[in-house]
Amino acid sequence: MKFWFLFILPFLLPAQNKFDLATENQTAAIPFKFINNLIIVKTEVNGKMMNMIFDTGVKETILINLKSLDSLNLKGVKKLYFAGVGNENIKIAALSSVHNKINLQNKLVNNDALIYIVTGVEFHFSENTGININGFIGGDLIKDFIVQIDYKKNLLRFYRHSDFDKKLLKKYKSYPLEIIRDKPYVYAFVKASKNSPQVDSLKLLIDTGNGDAVWFFSKRKIKLPANQKTVTDYFGLGFSGKITGQRAKMYRFGFDDKFRFKNVYAGLPDSIYFTHIVRNNPFDGLLGNEILRRFFIFLDYGNKTVYLKKYGRNYRNRFLFNDTGLYLSYDGKIPVKVKTLVTNFETDYKKGAVEVYREESYIYRYRLVDKIVISYIRKDSPADRAGLMKGDVLLEINGNDVYRYRLDELEKRYFYHNNKYLEFTVKRKGMILQFKVFNTNQL
Q: Under CATH, which number does the domain 326-438 receive?
């Protein structure tokens, strides 16, 4: 399951709002965690350490899930309202603040930052990442640098334009960008089926805050053949609730003959969620990390260019689909009984000889582990037909304890590899139940 939000701000407040390198070094390398196809960076805001999603789909720095605002020492605070994905009539209460300090690991700093704080809703990113997420940082951070996204080393590298060595781009291919309000748009093509006409010049927002491969908004442009398989799927949460739509396997998607992919799973969210978003800035969809992670990337907003080079290991990965229809999330902690092998050695001295005896036994201890629950089941999917339910606490898959894996590892290991069947052990209302899910290829 992926969470995705697009924030629409009614106006911008004046502020210098410029990031710079904190030292005289020519570059700054910022490490990130890549969890559930999201880029998460440690960021300090007014001295308070936070986990922020690096999101090229937003311009402004936006804070969420703050339990207290007192420690942030906010200045010039004003009330406003956000609109966003889900329903243009729903307004979310927020605050704006100027003259803030944002520090990324003492390498990048903004001493006069404009930030927005969403106060009217809580976002449960921790259910999917295992860590608390405190906000989004994107366009304001990128606009004055050339930025490399390195999915191999999990690094963001920031270069001043004046210090950038163009030799670094020797093996890269360049593509033009449109930069609108510090958000980058690139053009791509798609071919829905082998016999479908190719649709060119699709304008896509490069969105590192989206874990999927690609979403298309316009069903006028993306016309699926009548016999093409689709499933109704869940794409995440917007302000007004679940974002749903169709998912389909596209025969081909790419930028040109050099960089193109086959059998890409694309989302076609219901148009109601995005009509008001594209009204004043028409674009055709989103390009997310499931595509982006297959490249080494340089973003140069100043020269309106993106540079791409294959990241071989990721580039060759097949695009996978969760045929089970089962989605998981974290839900706090749960005690489990863990068996540990203990070995004891005893030494026996007899008539000048030394004999060593080894004794083995098991001890059992309880420890707290991540509680993983079923958070969503796609209707008429194999998991739905097997009888699994939302809220079931997952204990084992194919006899293996689920707490041994991170959530994203668990999903990739079992849900995306076309297993013929999976055996689940769950806890439901105090009862331990077992289910066998027989997978069918739905797309």
A: 2.30.42.10
